[in-house]
Amino acid sequence: MRGLHADTGYLLYRLGLRSGQLFNTFLQESGLRLRHYAVLRFLATSTGALQRELSTSLGYDPSAIVGLVDDLEKLGFVERRPSPDDRRSRIVALTADGRVFLRDTDEAGQRVTNELLGPLDATERESLHALLQRLAEDGRK
Hints:
The protein has helices at residues 8-27, 34-44, 51-58, 62-74, 96-116, 122-139, and strands at residues 49-50, 78-82, 90-94. By secondary structure, the protein is mainly alpha-helical. It has a three-stranded antiparallel sheet with strand order 1-3-2. Helix 1 (8-27) packs across helix 5 (96-116) and helix 3 crosses helix 4 (62-74). The longest helix has 21 residues, at 96-116.
């Protein structure tokens, strides 16, 4: 019988837990968690998104997105705007304060990644990133 660490799925799960712990520790002072950070990072690459688009793109339950956006809106990091296509829908967009927060956390986020991937050299890190990206993109289909 093979050991637990021979199971790639388990190793990915453990790595995900460790990554979440490290990110949540560095975000602790701001009162945010990794899920908030993911919303902000996603919005940083767009002009805004509907809440249902955030849910689909990030893989979060729609009800969780509402709470996350509420939290971020209270901090002034995002704002809800009317959708030009549907009066009932709101677009969530990153604010200037949200961009400043992300810029200020870039270095800390890189430190977390460096700690997590410390045992790997630059080539291995690139390979791991490419493989994880392929798996993540395939999972969206």
